[in-house]
């Protein structure tokens, strides 16, 4: 039994953190297993239960095996697609791998354990059209996943996504890490100059590519995670962070990272995810580093941070689907307001205002101010 208040699926993160593969499939409920499969974490459960000799007796084991096999196929398709794209763009500047396609290959014990939705690539602004032309020659076509018009992407941090009709692989070409004219887009932590200096030459399938430095990758994972409240995305981001820190803990330059983060909007994001992982002993960070990180952020007091930790406990790692649209809206309000780069008391006041004051009243007050 888990201790009271401990989230049900923290065991999956513990397996990732300690390389334990002794989870017992029968100790997970049917609801939890179905939730894990729906959210792309079935393969991780299979990996974590390798030493379970009775796993074959579980009526849900075939479901997990199917999820694992599907993930392997999807991962292989994306890796093959990336190989083809890198070869096609060999004449241009090296492509920098972002997000899942980079982390899965670089840090995960098996690439398919990392859910894969698309291929994210970073290129210099002057090379975007060249890379897009190469994608079109490979058979990719422009598609908007969310139905947004082409004009939306003119001021976004990536162009309209590409999709290969036959392989069903999506590709996004970024020229920035975050949208310009946003808190993160304007942040010095993710400025164009910073990113250019933090792209390191690497390899993918014996081909030359770029990857973000571990320090910038860490900040990017945390800040990308906090942009919106997402249950599956939140768990994946925590797994990314665990595997990154396991692989790079000896070489990671904390002093340089802390210098970038000091007083920045990203400091709160990094502090939130690392403080949560540290609460359950999922990452090893020296106390002095953690104290400096706590002092570098401006968004959280003890109450604010505790509220967000409990949201993560219950709604990200609880192993249950949030069916109510209203609950999701309320969670988004709490998440978004507590993470604003404002004093903790003001962020807390915004949460109370948005939760307690009816929308019609806020609208009338806004009209009076106008």
Number of domain modules: 1
> What is the CATH architecture assignment?
2-Layer Sandwich
Proportion in β-strands: 5-15%
Query: Structural class of the secondary elements?
Result: alpha/beta
Description:
- The protein has one domain (10-369): 2-Layer Sandwich (Beta Polymerase, domain 2), CATH 3.30.460.
- It has 16 helices and seven strands.
- It has helices spanning 10-18, 30-38, 42-48, 61-88, 99-106, 128-137, 192-197, 214-226, 231-248, 254-261, 265-279, 287-296, 302-316, 325-338, 344-356, 359-369; strands at residues 96-98, 119-122, 141-142, 162-164, 169-174, 199-204, 207-212.
- Strand 6 and strand 7 (207-212) form a beta hairpin.
- It is globular and about 55 Å long.
- The protein starts with 9 loop residues before the first helix and ends with a helix.
Write the layout of secondary structure elements.
Elements (H helix, E strand, L loop, with lengths): L9 H9 L11 H9 L3 H7 L12 H28 L7 E3 H8 L12 E4 L5 H10 L3 E2 L19 E3 L4 E6 L17 H6 L1 E6 L2 E6 L1 H13 L4 H18 L5 H8 L3 H15 L7 H10 L5 H15 L8 H14 L5 H13 L2 H11 L1
Parallel strand pairs: 1-7, 2-5
Antiparallel strand pairs: 1-2, 3-4, 4-5, 6-7
Descriptive keywords:
370 residues, alpha/beta, Beta Polymerase, domain 2, seven-stranded mixed sheet, 16 helices, 7 strands, 52% helix, globular, disordered C terminus
Condensed summary:
This protein is an alpha/beta fold. 52% of the residues lie in helices and 8% in strands.
